[in-house]
Amino acid sequence: ERHGYWRKPEYRSWEKMIQRCNNPKRRDYRWYGARGISVCERWRDSFKEFLLDMGLCPERHTLARRDPDGNYAPSNCRWA
Q: Whole-model pTM?
């Protein structure tokens, strides 16, 4: 998937979100995937869809979930 964002904060946030929910080898998996927190299918399958829903990351912001026990999905995420 070519998008030109692979070094940008939006792509890094998307990649880390996918990893912490799906990769048991990551240290932070226990706080995400192991607790049942997942990434919605739309985002899991496409960085472009994630970017369309979230928009560009404002400077000094990170991806945050409104409900910390909820999944990563457009209705539960924001740049904070």
A: 0.90
